[in-house]
Amino acid sequence: MVVVAPTTHFHWPIAMPRVVVPGQMPVEKIMYPLEPTFREYPEEKFEFVLGSASDLDPEGSVVIVALNDGTSRAVPYDTLFIATGSSAKDDMPWKLVGTADNTFDRIHALQKQVQGAETIVVAGGGLTGAETAGEIGYQYGRKGNKEVYFIYNDDLPLSPGVMASVRKQTKVELERMKVKLVPKTTVTKATTRGRDTILEMRHADGTTRTLTAQAYLPTTGVTPNTSFVPKSMLDENGYVRQTSFLRADGYKNIFVVGDAGSLEDNRSLAADSQAGHLIKFLPAYFEGGSLPEYKVNSKTMYGITLGQSKATGQMGNMKVFSWIVWLLKGRFLGTDKVPGIAAGKMTMSATFEK
């Protein structure tokens, strides 16, 4: 077994909205070293390669790896698992920023900006944006210590796929924390001038305005880490075309798990569910058996934490009580499970023995 990754640490993105607020959660709660776990594996059967896949030859069953030391290496395979995830836009540490060192540096720089800012702007109306605005609003906005703005391009926070009642509740809770909401607006340009960031914004009615902030936190989506994959294997958005058997379309010996694949939205629960499915049935595959089809969960589930005391969410078409989301997610943001997940001993939904 050969594991290729550019980072020495496991990164837990779910807790990042709280981590960016200085003093609320140590970075060590979301960045766990992989070496202690890898040390347990027999050297003759396991190798960790520190680098990033730069090219894939699916016909020749070879991955070219750009090593972190500047050299490259060809790694042949019998079975390949593409679990390269995605990267946040704008060089933001909502996901890994390349190496572990780069990610640590980016998080610490962001915390310093937030700490010293008089005005903080969060842009992007998705889950990460809403939760980040909530964490910053809870710490600073409600106390009047700093001005906190939340810019999003719809009339309500979150995507239209979320129930209207949940989106309205998110808006209400953010307003209670004195977060200044700027709906139906898009940031078109961000220019750094000293410690200030000048934001140019366009409203839905076509008017424009500028806003000056000392901390700017864009949460404008992710891009899949699939630049090494032949374009013939990708869909129009750059995701690996993934079958319901979690295989790359047209290849029986290439599996795809998580954000890099096209089968489900980029959510942690989807990646967790796909990983759990393969973990359960891979022994049969390696013994020459067939894998059962993976069942996509069509039930919409969201848990939105809004600061350290409020939350909202939905399960299917049912709105979930705030205290339930806080109990299941808001208290620890999953960091109570991270050591086991990083060590490969559990998933978000189930535990298993290695």
UniProtKB/TrEMBL annotation:
The reply on keyword Iron is no
Which segments constitute the FAD/NAD(P)-binding domain?
Answer: 40-260
User: One Pfam family name from the record?
Assistant: Pyr_redox_2
Q: Name one GO cellular component term.
A: cytoplasm
Which GO terms of the molecular function aspect are on file?
electron-transferring-flavoprotein dehydrogenase activity; flavin adenine dinucleotide binding
Q: Which UniProt keywords apply?
A: FAD, Flavoprotein, Oxidoreductase
Q: Which family does it belong to?
A: Belongs to the FAD-dependent oxidoreductase family.
Q: What is this protein called?
A: Apoptosis-inducing factor, putative
In which organism is this protein found?
Metarhizium acridum (strain CQMa 102)
